Amino acid sequence: MEPEDEHRRESCTRMTVVNDKARIEFALNQVESYVARMGPSPTTHRLRLALEVLKQTVASWETSDPTDEQVQLLLEHITEVRDLAQNSTPTVRLRRAK
């Protein structure tokens, strides 16, 4: 039974990595969408640079798997950047019918 249990743990670990990667990619796409709608400003420039660093960090994980702590810290950082981008993105207000 030992080999089956080991295989099962390995499979769960791979699934977790895949799920984390999907969450990270989704969050990065959100950030990219918000930043693309922003006008030129120092904040936009800073967010584009932060987005590029985040993408490079994820790309570097192709050579070695990140630790759980690294994944959580990256997700937290992406969330911070996403929130800043979302709050800085101009919104279109709908006109109210009178």
Describe this structure in words.
The protein has three helices and no strands. With 98 residues, the chain is an all-alpha fold. The chain has one domain. Helix 1 (2-36) packs parallel to helix 3 (68-88) and helix 2 packs antiparallel against helix 3 (68-88). The longest helix is centred in the N-terminal third of the chain and has 35 residues, at 2-36. The mean pLDDT is 80.
Question: Any key phrases for this structure?
Answer:
98 residues; mainly alpha; 77% helix
The low-confidence runs, each spanning 5 or more residues with pLDDT under 50, are: none
Structural class based on helices, strands and sheet pairing: mainly alpha
Q: Cα-atom Rg, whole angstroms?
A: 18 Å
Ends distance: 72 Å
How helical, in percent, are the residues?
A: over 70%
- β-sheet strand percentage: under 5%
Mean pLDDT equals: 80
Biggest sheet architecture: none
The topology string of helices and strands comes to: HHH
Total beta strand runs: 0
- Compute the number of structural domains: 1
Number of helices: 3
Shape category:
elongated
